[in-house]
Specification:
Elements (H helix, E strand, L loop, with lengths): L5 H4 L1 H8 L5 H25 L7 H20 L9 H9 L9 H10 L22 H13 L5 H13 L3 H5 L6 E3 L4 E5 L2 E4 L2 H12 L29 H10 L4 H13 L4 H8 L3 H33 L1
Antiparallel strand pairs: 1-2, 2-3
Helix pairs in contact: 2-4, 3-4, 7-8, 8-12, 12-14, 13-14
């Protein structure tokens, strides 16, 4: 089916596996929450966007949090209809991670179905980026991607793009040959509206899948659909975001830290609108990333200047 998003369509099967040891009451809430609320909106967004947002992992988390919340209310003998604001506050305060804030999506749906009264879930506290890959390790991994023939070609290319440009895995998986522009001496990759210059070795890694002839399905006269720089196991479909993430991680390129390191480096040099366009992040996130990177750089320069003054006094 044209426009079918395989990452999204796998989620109902995942949910059935998750519900295997859950009560029928919880299943009767989780299924419509996913089908009528989360998936409906996600499919609409995916159909309208050239680069679909990475939704499958987010949707799984929202459903998982809803199931955790239902187990939590059962342990306290609470019915959904009896939920008070203090119960929501207790739920949020009962964990150190931000995961529990995702209950806002489930409560929005239960309120729309009149299963709960309207309650407030506080905003997620602002946090600075964590788990950054420092520049030395990032460049070492990038060098490995560009030169290590023992790595699979798709790992080398996908890892290099992540390490250089901080591109979201969803956008990475949906790259096609049309995103590449080869000139006489230079090659560019179109990420958003802004083409980025490719190192020659990365350009060559991408040239092979870009110029590989398209295979037409033997049992169909239909056009085989778009070609992908990172094809998946299903004919005519790209590799899934989960599959690409797992593949890179297995080869020592931890996607989250690699991407965070690239974003921090880019944010120090690029204005936030361009950063958001190239990386696929929300413009508000790009603003925060730029503010953090430039403040961090300013603090580094100030500390370095203080050290130089101290050394001058010592040797003066």
């Amino acid at each position: 089916m044209e426009g079918r998003n395989e990452d999204l369509e796998r989620i109902p099967g995942w949910l059935e596996h998750e519900l295997a040891d859950k009560s029928a009451a919880h299943a009767s809430l989780a299924r419509p929450f996913l089908d009528w609320f989360l998936l409906r909106r996600a499919r609409q967004r995916a159909a309208m966007r050239r680069h679909p947002a990475s939704a499958d992992r987010d949707l799984r988390r929202r459903v998982s949090v809803a199931l955790d919340f239902l187990a939590w209310t059962d342990q306290r003998g609470l019915a959904l209809a009896d939920l008070a604001q203090e119960h929501i506050d207790d739920w949020i305060a009962g964990a150190t991670s931000q995961r529990r804030y995702l209950i806002r999506y489930f409560l929005k749906w239960t309120t729309s179905r009149r299963l709960t009264c309207e309650r407030t879930v506080p905003s997620i506290p602002s946090q600075e980026p964590q788990n950054l890959l420092d520049d030395d390790d990032r460049w070492r991994l990038l060098q490995r991607c560009l030169t290590d023939d023992a790595l699979p070609p798709d790992v080398r290319a996908g890892g290099a793009i992540t390490l250089l440009f901080g591109t979201s895995t969803q956008r990475l998986c949906h790259l096609t040959p049309e995103h590449l522009k080869f000139g006489d001496k230079r090659a560019h990759l179109l990420l958003g509206r802004h083409p980025v210059l490719l190192p020659p070795r990365l350009a060559e890694l991408l040239r092979q899948p870009a110029e590989q002839p398209q295979v037409r399905p033997q049992l169909s006269r239909a056009h085989p659909g778009p070609r992908w720089l990172f094809p998946g196991m299903v004919q005519g479909k790209p590799i899934s975001t989960h599959g690409m993430t797992q593949k890179l991680n297995r080869h020592g390129i931890m996607v989250r830290t690699a991407r965070n390191g690239a974003l921090a480096a880019l944010a120090a040099d690029l204005p936030s609108p361009i950063l958001a366009d190239v990386t696929g992040m929300h413009h508000h996130t790009a603003l925060r990333c730029v503010a953090y990177a430039r403040r961090d750089w300013a603090e580094y320069l100030a500390a370095r200047a203080a050290d130089e003054r101290q050394q001058a006094r010592t040797h003066g």
